[in-house]
Amino acid sequence: MNRTSRSRTRTPRLLGAALTAGALAVGTVLATTSSAHADTLFSDTFSDGAADGWSRSGGSWSVVTDGSYAYRQSGTSSDARALAGAGTWTDYGVQARVRPTGFGGANRHAGVIARAQSSSSYYALVVTASGGVQLIRRSGGDPVSLGSAPAGITVGSWATLRLEAVGSSLRGYVDGTLRVQATDGAFAAGRIGLATSYASATFDDVQVDTATGAPPTGTPSGGPTLPPTGPPIDPGAPPVGFASVHALGQNGTTGGAGGPTVTVDTAAELLTAIGTAGPLTVRVDGMIALPGPMHDVTSDKTIVGVGASSGITGGGLNIGLPVSDATSPPANAVHNVIVRNLNFRNTVDDAINVQMFSHHVWIDHNDLAYGYDGLIDVKRGSSYVTVSWNHTHHHTKNMLLGHDDRNAAQDVGNLKVTYHHNWFDRTPQRNPRVRYGDPVHVFNNYFVYNTDVGVACQLDSGCVVEGNYFEDVEVPWSISYSGDRGRMIARDNVLAGTSEPGDAGGTVQEPRTFYPYTLTEPATVKSVVTAGAGTGRLPY
């Protein structure tokens, strides 16, 4: 199958013959046969600041900074198209995040294109001026509506649109929910694209793949992803990894233990609870819509969802003090915070951000998708963090550890983080992407169909990558992903459908010098993690 990958966010990796024996991972790599997975035909995050390969017709197109680099069409006085890909593509899904910014009239729209024969002949799934979505066919003249549905999309807000074309079946999804479908045989194959009709909009995270029939994860109703059947988790069990270490005056991570418990089901109640001083366990009952972007969490908090379907949409959680140039931990650094069993959806910035020397944070058994920036970012000198048993999906820029090449003054000696038993489910990059962290322990995670890179370890960071299961991952790990190299020990990892593991080398302090841990047998990690990661495992 013809494959064009354009997730251009870094300098070229070392692949194939460029890998020397000295650059290979330390330890044993267990190679297994591949199972079939959908192919990614094309992706573009515009993170290189360019839009090479797109052919434009009408409008005013440019790559701009809209939180991160994105592709904007700023005119509202004409039709505009940007096309990419191959005219021979037949059955596929095209997906992008779309942010309408203005409509020149009541019957105007912006969205994604499939099976384009030309700039005036194609199918499209579009956001309309009324906030709904419409499935259209255009054959040289005015668009013909094949179906429409309300969607509640407002000007200035992001929505993920996905149009699938399989045979004569057309399906349109908004944020993972099937909203509209139709049958039409006008176009059997064609390119993908972005469309505005007398409207302005910004587009990001374009992806084209052959995983059609339904989103890879999620529910038809568009609610939080329900996990597969698996064993319940003991809520009283302590964390494994750096969050368990006695350091900086904190003995492990206990969250709100010893304090009262409150149950909240409104935004006002949740924000009051997470901002209250002193130990507190906050039970989140249902999906709570928060205004964006981020909301501060104070020390000694446990924030936990009730059941499998509770969580937060819109806003995210900020665990840390306001940004400053301080180079040593302040006495009032946020610490001892637990976030568990929550669904995070459609956050307008990060879903969870840990910053400014925050320490002893445990992020466990959450389901995170459809965010704007990072799903879980740890930065600015934070340390003693464990990220465990989370399911991340429907998102491109997954997890950062260290946010900037120029932040050594805060980060060197800190950013000690453990990632274990997470399910990195078709998240192309940052799984995680590490700067300066040392040591960083990545063990027993399930990586599946990451089309850019799994673990990227840069800027003198030190990573131990062990006992993970990598399935159809383009580059499972790398110390030469972008910029100055890091150090990495990679051992006992399973590679399924991946011929080149990436590059590793150098020395890293062993995690066992900080805490004890027991490895899950690497060959069983896929089944163990898919049965246990995400929400609905805790008896709350």
From TrEMBL:
Stretch list, region Disordered: 209-234
Subcellular location(s) of the protein: Secreted
Secreted recorded as keyword: yes
Record-annotated Pectate lyase domain positions: 257-476
Keywords from the named record: Carbohydrate metabolism, Lyase, Polysaccharide degradation, Secreted, Signal
Pro residues composition-biased segments: 225-234
MF-aspect GO terms: lyase activity
Pfam families for this protein: 3keto-disac_hyd (PF06439), Pectate_lyase_4 (PF00544)
Top-level taxon: Bacteria
Main location: secreted
Matches recorded under SUPFAM superfamilies: Concanavalin A-like lectins/glucanases, Pectin lyase-like
Signal peptide (residue range): 1-38
Record-stated family: Belongs to the polysaccharide lyase 1 family.
The name this protein goes by in its record: Pectate lyase
Annotated source species: Micromonospora reichwaldensis
Lineage: Bacteria, Bacillati, Actinomycetota, Actinomycetes, Micromonosporales
